Amino acid sequence: MTQLHDYRSLYNSYLEYCNEHDFDSMASFYTPTIKVNGVPMDPASVTEQFAPLISAFPDWHWEMRHIVVDEENIVVHFEVTGTHRGTFQGIAATGRGVSISEFTLYRLEDGKFAEVWDLVDMAALMKQIS
Would you tell me how many other CB atoms lie within 10 Å of the CB of residue 118? Predict the structure, then answer.
């Protein structure tokens, strides 16, 4: 098995935990200090950021559309979907379904995510629930 294949398998496992909203298992994929969009964080702080999102969109789901892997990076394009069932950024539940794009680049160190750069189309999300 090649390293690139291993990284694809690693990411598929991570994505399963993401879609199960299993924050503890997600955190196990991070280095002890992970940089998220340039900000150093511990794994628990990273996963805590998902809680308000999952509370407002309990069926939040990342569907991988594209993945590119090299010796130390994984780049993923997602279609993200969910149903607005709770308050999100001050907007009460609407029951509307949402679908947005997300692009994420992960840099790996010793088989764990050491840095993450994430771009989510929040404007599209807010438009769909407003």
Answer: 12
